[in-house]
């Protein structure tokens, strides 16, 4: 007589098999920590991700609407701590060092078939404006980040940001 598993038991079994299939193969887990560069040349350093998923770091944009000198800015964020290994995340960059604007990024960290990590993001940039100009104060865009060559998770972070 064949015994059927309950849906709950089946789900637990599948989760266990999924976790076991990734054991010892860290390349399938996307890790935010490290140095990243996006498709327009902006650079980002994400420091250690804490146990609650929070993280901080530095962001150095390659593009700006201001005529002021571009300076690195602090980023503060959080990531999901899912078992899947390709977490969603979000972070805020306050450009107070050279601009009166703030950008929020949201995205997901992926590992491709080649084992390389990428961050697919969408952002909103809000400029400080008078109320009558509110309609045009928020810009929307996307960026793809790739890990900076030679920067692996275990290496100490460079301070070139």
From TrEMBL:
Entries under InterPro entries matching the protein? Avidin, Avidin-like_sf, Avidin/str, Avidin/Streptavidin-rel
Q: List the disulfide bonds.
A: 30-109
GO molecular function terms attached to this record: biotin binding
Keyword list, A-Z: Biotin, Disulfide bond, Glycoprotein, Secreted, Signal
Location in the cell reads: Secreted
Gene Ontology annotations for the cellular component aspect, listed alphabetically: extracellular region
Q: Name the Pfam families on file.
A: Avidin
Gene3D superfamilies associated with the record:
Avidin-like
Q: Specify whether Transmembrane is a keyword of the entry.
A: no
Question: Which family is this sequence assigned to?
Answer: Belongs to the avidin/streptavidin family.
Record protein name field: Avidin
